Amino acid sequence: MIQGSPGPDVDGEGGGVLRPRALLFDWDNTLVDNWDVITDAMNAVYDAFGMPRWTIDEAKAKIRSSMRDAFPITFGERAKEAGRIFSDYFAAHHLERLREMPGAGGLLRGLAGSGLYLGVVSNKRGRFLRLEAERLGWTGHFGRLVGAADAPVDKPAVEPVDLALAASGIPRGSDVWFVGDTDIDMHCAVNAGCLPVLVRREAVQAGEFGAYPPALHLRDCAGLAARLHALGVLPSLDI
Prior knowledge:
Strand order of the largest sheet: 5-4-1-6-7-8
Number of helices: 9
Radius of gyration: 17 Å
């Protein structure tokens, strides 16, 4: 049987949600936990620039956009230098400290036989994303893993979604679930006309997502598996 609770839909609704043809996943804090290394890499930049350090909670709260979008705003004309420092630190440490989110591996293994198309749309640099998927043995689960700088623009734009779906022949629509843990994921899903599915333990606060609210809110990967099981997409899973 499935371990854990699926958690409530937002506002207790969602009964009319379409059975998905495809699932597009965010990566960090949705399928994997790499936040300690991300925080340390940001602090390597801040140390070099004489700026205040972040805690891991600050990093989780503040990091949304890709480096390509965020660093020019934060570091101005020194954005390329900051990017090199971040990337050098991250490249040296991210694989050794990579962890999967609870139940993520079991969920993906179950989905592998479901007939659904799976993809990833992340604002992590594409080369790091694909190295992490390979390390976890997950590459074969996905039709395409799209990271920052793989498309002409990054999430929340729709181009990364189109790139992730290109190999599937499935158009963007409400039968494509976009699964993530942050506001930028919900924004991207709504922009693309996909179903925004929030996966995180924290409750949704009133007005938190503005014009881009999640259609479903599930607490964890077990909750997502339970919802897919209820729709007849997955067998019962013990994750």
